[in-house]
Amino acid sequence: MKQIIDFVPLLLFFITYKIEPTTVEIAGFSLGVGGIFSATAVLIASSVVIYGVLFVHQRRLEKNQWLTLAACLLFGGLTLALHSETILKWKAPVLNWLFALAFFASHFYGHRPLIQRMMGHAVRLPAAQWSQLNVAWILFFLVCGFANLFVAFVYPAIWVDFKVFGSLGLTLLFMAGQALYLVRHMQPEPEKS
Prior knowledge:
Elements: H1 2-18, E1 22-26, E2 29-33, H2 35-58, H3 63-82, H4 85-89, H5 91-105, H6 114-119, H7 127-154, H8 159-185
Helix pairs in contact: 1-2, 1-8, 2-3, 5-7, 7-8
C-alpha cells in the first residue's frame, strides 16, 4: 500500500504534464497549466500534502519517504527555479542510486541487511537468503536508475510516460519476482509448545 501511495504524486505529475499547455486567469493572476513546469509544481505540492498527511497520521515517515520527499523538493525546486527540465530528469536516477547505495551499505553497517530490517518482522528467511534478496534490491535500483537515465536523455519524448508507467511496471515485475523468491525460501514458524 505504501508503494501505491508513493505513486500518487507521480500520477498527478503525469496527468498535469499531459494537459495541453495553456494560461488560466484566476482572481486576476495568470497561471500556466500543463507541460513540464506546472506538472513539476503539482508533483512538489502533492508530495508535500501526501507525505504531510502520512506524517500527521503515523507520527513519522520512513527513511525512504523522507528521501523521496527531499529529492522531490530539491530537484523539483531547482527545475522550477532554473526553468530547466534536465534537472528533474536526474531525480529518478539519483534517487534510485541512493536507494541502491543504502542497500549496499547495509551489508557493511549494522547486523542485518536493509531488506531484512524492513521485512524481517513479517518474513523468516535464512541469513544467506536475506543477503541474496538484499543484492537483488541493489541490482533493481541500479537498473531502474540507469533505465530512467537512458530513456530521459535518449528518448525524451516518452520520458514522462516511462517515468510513470515504466517505473511502475518494473516495480510490479520485481515485486512479483520477490514474492516468488520469498515463497520458495520461507521457513515455517517454529511450533509453540
